[in-house]
């Protein structure tokens, strides 16, 4: 099955193991790791969980891993169940994989699992060709809901949020109605002013036309001649 083992250890600055654990961030904290200086290239180490019961919402597996060293190898996460295992597949279905040097730091990974039968998960480390390097795991957590989902909401909080949203929507609609009424009133006033201006312009035009007509009629009727002088009285001899 596996050719090497997962070991329980603490932080170390003298080799490729993590200098601190992830939980306490101290050199006295613990984690599990595989020493890549032991064994041969391609050897595998299995870390198997307890059996978990299926959930209608699924599960989320979250863990922190540390992979340091050139050609350090590959870390995989598999899901297995009794039916699959009985066929001779001891690893199961691959769900996550990472290879190579990731630096001297802890990195987080989360994997959502949806399985209809009882299952277990298996971490498999496959040794790389470099004997100087280590792979470590810490803070492996399994929760019965999908990854990154929000926690259940208390009913009272939900009702409060619903009421708050309803009030906000109602206030927004009220403001919209008031603004619409004000715009309607302003628009009506503007229309009235425009009509008044148009009527005033029409009156000016009519007055101008009447005055012109009056002048023309007066010129044609000869009313601008001196009324004390009648041209008909001019004697031909005077002319």
UniProtKB/TrEMBL annotation:
Checking InterPro entries in the record gives: ConA-like_dom_sf, MAM_dom, MAM_domain-containing
Where are the membrane-spanning stretches?
A: 163-186
The segment(s) forming the MAM domain are 1-149
Please note every region of biased composition (Polar residues).
11-27
Please give one Pfam family short name.
Answer: MAM
- Disordered: region residues: 1-27
Q: Which Gene Ontology cellular component terms are annotated?
A: membrane
Spell out the SMART domains in the cross-references: MAM
State the UniProt keywords alphabetically: Membrane, Transmembrane, Transmembrane helix
Q: What is this protein called?
A: MAM domain-containing protein
Which organism is the protein's source?
Mugilogobius chulae (yellowstripe goby)
Biological classification of the source? Eukaryota, Metazoa, Chordata, Craniata, Vertebrata
